[in-house]
What does this fold into?
Amino acid sequence: MRTIRVTVRGAFDGLTPAQVERLTREQAEHDFLRTEYTPEGYLAYDVPARPFFTFRFAEQADDEAGVAAATARAEAKAVAWMASHGYPVKNVTAQAVDMSEVPLGKRGKREAARHDRP
It folds into this structure.
């Protein structure tokens, strides 16, 4: 089973002043500097600065078809969450990274070597 990180990006579209006020009030819970990937999705935005949002999802997949399905699933979850909260959005895109294909850095190589020792 592969761990897939899916980043869904988009823009708020025609927010009302009340919606902007609500998003601004709740912004501390959605800090755009945090890069957390969770199964339910982590929403990040900075509405006073720009009208864009990012959702970060942790998904699982067995193969390439599963990666495509995980990407579509994450995008659908993000759009559904926005709709359920009454936020109109546009230009929604999703990008997936298969973590098994990400090269290990120095620390990761040390960890892998330590676990491979007899």
